[in-house]
């Protein structure tokens, strides 16, 4: 069993929390764009409230522990590890509740190179506990607007976790799919599942557009969010997203393994 103290130490050593790689400049740019309702950073959330940049700075200070000072405009962001730990406990509680009732669950990631292993281990544990890990719309095409223009991607599943791939043969180094913030993949998956008569997920687990897109459609959604991802935390504040764990979502994939062990233990899903 990984203790809370040991995990806190790991969060800081791996820079999952504490001083993280995400820059203050990146985060402030995201808050500014979100305040302007730029879809590139809203990633599926349609806020009910008016969010100005200073409101978002205060929200992210409350949720993540970043500086609440609008005059702090450079350097690295900081995530309070205590907030990460508290959110991980709430995240684990939702997983445990899904396992107890044998709920159908959908996993999806826009960070497959970093977070696939984390979600796959959770999917394996929930499947072993009797949950159905859903995989609808496998192979479907999704057109996503990127900074390079409109690109077509294919929906795929690896160990029960949804992701998107560029069409064509897999290239070296790209075996686990493409990075995306778009909510279009989860909308496609949910639409296909509904058209087929279900089942529909009672819980969606992931990041970026997978969480925001599902939460906006009324599905219970939990996931991970970095300091430059205000949409997830706005969704949590407004009630469309259930739990967001603040952490750096782009460190080495093996650095998330202690989080996996901690969450599974807290959710009573350790095998």
Explain what the structure shows.
With 271 residues, the chain is α/β, with parallel strands linked by helices. The protein has ten helices and nine strands. The protein has helices at 4-13, 24-35, 39-42, 53-63, 81-101, 112-128, 184-195, 208-216, 230-238, 257-266; strands at residues 18-23, 76-79, 105-108, 141-146, 149-158, 161-165, 203-207, 221-225, 243-246. The strands form two sheets. Strands 4-5-6-3-7-8-9 form a seven-stranded mixed β-sheet. A two-stranded antiparallel sheet has the order 1-2. Strand 7, helix 8 (208-216) and strand 8 (221-225) form a beta-alpha-beta unit. Helix 4 crosses helix 9 (230-238), helix 5 (81-101) crosses helix 10 and helix 6 packs parallel to helix 10.
Give the C-alpha Rg: 18 Å
Distance between the termini: 12 Å
Spell the H/E element sequence.
HEHHHEHEHEEEHEHEHEH
Low-confidence parts lasting 5 or more residues at pLDDT below 50?
none
Major sheet: arrangement of strands: 4-5-6-3-7-8-9
Q: Helical percent range?
A: 40-55%
The portion of residues forming beta strands comes to 15-25%
Count the helices. How many? 10
**Helix/sheet category:** alpha/beta
Arithmetic mean of pLDDT: 95
Largest sheet: 7 strands, mixed
Number of strands: 9
| Global outline | globular
